Amino acid sequence: MSRDLVGEVWPAAQPGTDPMLYGHAEIVEGAAVEVRTEATFTVKYTVGRFGLDDTGAIRIVFRAMSDFRPLQTTDPGAPDFASATSSSSVPLTVSYVGRGNAARPRWKSLTVNVTGGYLSEGDVITVVLGDTSGGSRGWRVQTIAEAGFEFAVLADVCAVGHFVPIPESPSISILAGPPARWVCVLPSLRRPGEPFQLGIKAEDAWGNPSDTASAELRIESNVWVRGLPSTLSYGPGRRAVTIEGLSVEEAGTVRIEIFDESGTGLAESHPLVIREGGISGYWGDMHGQSGESIGLTTARQYFDFARNAAFLDATGHQANDFQVNNAFWAHLQELTSEHDEPGRFVAMPGYEWSGNTAVGGDRNVYFRTEGRQIRRSSHALLSDRSDIDTDANDANELFGALRANDEDCVVYAHVGGRYADTAFAHDPEFETAMEIHSAWGTFEWLLTDGFELGHRCGVVANSDGHKGRPGASYPGAAMFGAYGGLTCFLTHELSRDGIFDSLRRRHHYATTGTRMFLDVHARFEDAQVFDADPAVHEDATSTPATRVMMGDIVSTTDSTTTVDIEVVAHSPVERVEIRNGTDVVDTFRPYGAEDLGRRVRVLWSGAEYRGRGRTTTWRGTARLDGNQIEQFAPVNSWNLERTPRLDGEASVVFDSITTGNFGGFDVLLHDATDGQLTIDTEHGSLTIPVSSIGMDDVVMEAGGLERRLKVFRLPDENPHRECRATFHVPLWDDGDNPLWVSVFTEDGFQAWSSPIFVFRP
């Protein structure tokens, strides 16, 4: 990617302007390599005209979000060994740090120091990453396919501690692996006759679209779909296929399956509900970054992936503002304008206001149109200071500037490296939603904190992905612990106007990455529904209503309300929680106690605290005494190198992480009631007779931030992928009643409706 678009700062003082002073680098061994394989790369650095002085150094730096296995420089026989030699036999020392010797976005660095002499022009330093000469297997590369994995070389030729990038650092391609699974994607809600698309792709084990898949596909639908072919030749070189212009005339639920030429089922689509009404459901991942800031790949590739490989209806690019230079800001506007196609795909212009938590914390800003002023939290990584007077250094200043300039925009609060403090700053005119799930984890508290403060916000989820894969953001093998989330916007049309209308009315729901149909309504005897928040807009008007949808603000004299829910999912529904604020007032399961069998689920969840170091490690064993395990399956185990595993016939070993989200495993026991289950973790232990495990959770609280372990029983087979239920919920007299639901599916996904805010006058 163009260095002109990357917000990074190098030393202002440099030895000279001629690039020949600093030398050049090339890769002389190593070429394109498959993701997560072990490889060897030899980088040859040729010293420039200034030479390389005694105690000077070169550095090979890598992007922070690359999840290659850390290099080591002390054991030639161990994995990931790196070495360096000089052509003139001058001694060198080699060291690697994951963060500290280089600036964002290239935190990871291998430093080669000259320690007993100097090098002259033309001398060569040969660096071997994944050196196998001493018995090492090589260097395990990242899990993310990337066309330009860069070995960025810096040189401190004068031994002054200032590392200057040399021109044209070398790069290689990291390729997707062979297909490990097929994916078939439909939207969730369309009206009869309304066009929709079907997306098909094959992914490798780490979630990259594989371009080596080849199959003669047979496509079958449970209902007749206009425009759907019965076969598809899927050949090598394709990353994904989109079949557009499909439609269904009659109300119902569409499920599509794909088969190979032998008749083997490869994948089933998410369900699509066809229903009369004024709205459809459009899926978006509105929050992620690319390599011009902290992420990987280019912004152009980011938008292409969202539309053509993740099959999204909408996306936004949200780079950290202090890293967005003016050239990149202009480039992003060009990309959103180019990719925005009402009725087919929405590309929303915007940025991430990235202030520290002490001054309000992370916010996402989305504009309806291009050409708006970016108001940064700081110029931390920008050498051009010409527009520093446009900065908004805290979140209240940001909201003030948006209001003063009458900006047509919406704002999300979110949790990333920094978390938003909505008590410090919140403007309900702009900040309509809380992002409660991303690849960083799950953060329901960001929404529920606002209940006591009187905030009326909807829920959204996004990937906050840094790997250039919006809409299908797998966490890989590094710092992210969850699959990226999605938001379903319930609105009248697929356009920026439609998305803005959905957000300003909170007519949307969020998931941890699956696409399900979720409908939540409340019924009243006597109520008024408002067209805007009356606590914010003096001119808000209301109309009588007996039935309202998620996100609505309602006044009623009723003492109770009836909440109707409908779920149509890809996987069996495990439970639905009906909530009033932070209270779970009822729990629905589509099966009864009489349906429970030999299957037991163990889940761990939570975080250490709200900040950057929130990751909780769950390391331990689950052991059965007096019983055996016949079948085993992990739940939400996204890192393939940290997957829980069977250890014999009666024990499970796990080493997993959570960052507010949950993971765990299922076991099918030989006997439904015999024996005892003991779970030992570094956060506590739980022992329970198998006969005591039932439908209700057995919980071990483990401190931290909602950190806990729980055990419960499931039916051996749960056929319920669709369910409806009705609940009668008492209403509080004082303040809001935020009525919302959370859905848990057996494949480990979770969904939340935006609250219906009910108050009694």
Q: How would you describe this structure to a colleague?
A:
This protein has 761 residues and is mostly beta strands. It folds into 4 domains: 3-175, Immunoglobulin-like, CATH 2.60.40; 181-277, Sandwich (Immunoglobulin-like); 281-513, Metal-dependent hydrolases (TIM Barrel, Alpha-Beta Barrel), CATH 3.20.20; 595-714, no CATH class. It is built from 5 helices and 55 strands. The strands form 11 sheets. It has a 15-stranded mixed sheet that branches. Strands 28, 29, 30, 31, 32 and 33 form a 6-stranded mixed sheet that branches. Strands 7-8-5-12-13 form a 5-stranded antiparallel sheet, with no helix packed on it. The N and C termini lie far apart (58 Å).
Give a short synopsis of this structure.
The chain has 761 residues and is mainly beta. Helices cover 7% and strands 40% of the residues. The protein folds into four domains: 3-175, Immunoglobulin-like, CATH 2.60.40; 181-277, Sandwich (Immunoglobulin-like), CATH 2.60.40; 281-513, Alpha-Beta Barrel (TIM Barrel), CATH 3.20.20; 595-714, no CATH class.
